[in-house]
Automatic annotation (TrEMBL):
Residues of the G-protein coupled receptors family 1 profile domain: 43-294
Main location: membrane
Membrane topology: Multi-pass membrane protein
Cellular component terms per the entry's GO annotation: plasma membrane
Any Pfam family: 7tm_4
Organism name: Chelonia mydas (Green sea-turtle)
Gene Ontology MF annotations: G protein-coupled receptor activity; olfactory receptor activity
Domain of life: Eukaryota
rRNA processing listed as a keyword: no
UniProt KW keywords: Membrane, Olfaction, Receptor, Sensory transduction, Transducer, Transmembrane, Transmembrane helix
Organism classification: Eukaryota, Metazoa, Chordata, Craniata, Vertebrata
Protein name in UniProt: Olfactory receptor 52N4
Length: 351
């Protein structure tokens, strides 16, 4: 068993060591990791179930939440089964093909997740800055198309990573000090010229995150500018609430992701187990936090998950305007009313 832990018995396999330096504590570390995974899985499945059952939630905003939930389910599912096999049963071997496959899907879903966050920022921008055209700019069909574009982008960007590595010869010492087949960790196992792989991986990280963060920042700058032009304090509060939710979700994703990637590539002063724990938490915490953040902050979702103790409220069919509205819908209504008043005054010649 000791020899098995030190070197792969099959030249077509890698060994994932888990968390170097903390081997004795890995069983205990697996407990919070498993809790994060289970809580995230249950929360996201519940979100998908609620949106799927409720016809009133079949709207662009909630379709985007479903897309986010799907990526939040997929991301930890690609790493947790193997990580738990390492922690609990000391099953560390993984085939080269299996490792490259895990790497592809893991990074592809991460890019897809980033694309979804960009689309959500655009949805928020249109709802607040151009509410009169929201229905024509962002319909359910348009959201589906944007989701498909995000998927194609993710596949095209990430596919070269495993393809480049599959052409490389790997060294005899195929021990990956990690719980997962992260790109930079697998690159270090290659014995050939890895310049292209390293540069492509680094450029890809900055292009995807840089481009997406720029679009998100631009959306929120325009949103804040639109909010400052509104005299209604209620609209200000609703808009700030909505923006705060989105910003919290984005910070839980981008901040640890950038920190983990940059320290893994450039920092030599941080011990390996810190790198690995950060990388794992980056993939486990956002999927757990996202359904909690949206469930707490979005009134319509909260009402569906935790109905009033007095029993379900029934609304007359002729009074659909009494249906509970999300903060984003209320902001749109306030802005729409303000624009209509301006148009009315202009036509009446009072401006």
């Amino acid at each position: 068993m000791a020899a098995f832990n030190l070197t792969p018995s099959d030249p077509s396999t890698f060994l994932l060591t888990g968390i170097p330096g903390l081997e004795a504590a890995q069983v205990w570390i697996s407990i919070p990791f498993s809790m994060f995974y289970i809580i995230g899985l249950l929360g996201n499945v519940m979100l998908l179930s609620v949106v799927g059952k409720e016809q009133t939630l079949h709207k662009p905003m909630y379709l985007l939440l479903c897309m986010l939930a799907l990526t939040d389910i997929a991301t930890p599912t690609f790493i947790m089964p193997k990580a738990l096999c390492i922690f609990w049963f000391n099953l560390k071997d993984i085939t080269v093909a299996g490792c490259l496959t895990q790497m592809f899907f893991l990074h592809m879903v991460s890019v897809m997740h980033s694309s979804t966050l960009v689309t959500m920022a655009f949805d928020c921008y249109v709802a607040i800055c151009n509410p009169l055209r929201y229905g024509t700019i962002l319909s359910n069909a348009q959201i589906a198309k944007l989701g498909l574009v995000g998927l194609i982008r993710a596949v095209l960007f990430i596919l070269p990573l495993p393809l480049l590595l599959s052409q490389q010869p790997f060294c005899a010492n195929r021990i990956i000090p990690h719980t997962q087949c992260e790109h930079i960790a697998v690159v270090k196992m290659a014995c050939g010229d890895i310049t292209v792989s390293r540069i492509y991986g680094l450029v890809l990280m900055f292009v995807v995150m840089g481009f997406d963060l720029t679009l998100i920042a631009l959306s929120y700058i325009l949103i804040i500018r639109a909010i400052l032009r509104i005299s209604s304090k209620k609209a200000h509060q609703k808009a700030l609430n909505t923006c705060t939710v989105h910003i919290c979700v984005m910070l839980t994703y981008y901040a640890p992701g950038l920190f983990s990637n940059l320290t893994h590539r450039f920092s030599q002063g941080i011990t390996p187990h810190i790198h690995i724990i950060l990388a794992d938490l980056y993939l486990l915490l956002p999927p757990m936090l996202n359904p909690i953040i949206y469930g707490v902050k979005t009134k319509e979702l909260r009402d569906k998950v935790t109905p009033s103790p007095k029993g379900p409220v029934t609304y007359p069919k002729c009074t659909s305007d009494l249906t509970p509205k999300t903060p984003l819908q209320e902001i749109k209504d306030l802005l729409t009313k303000k624009k209509k008043r301006v148009i009315y005054k202009f036509r009446a010649g009072t401006m």
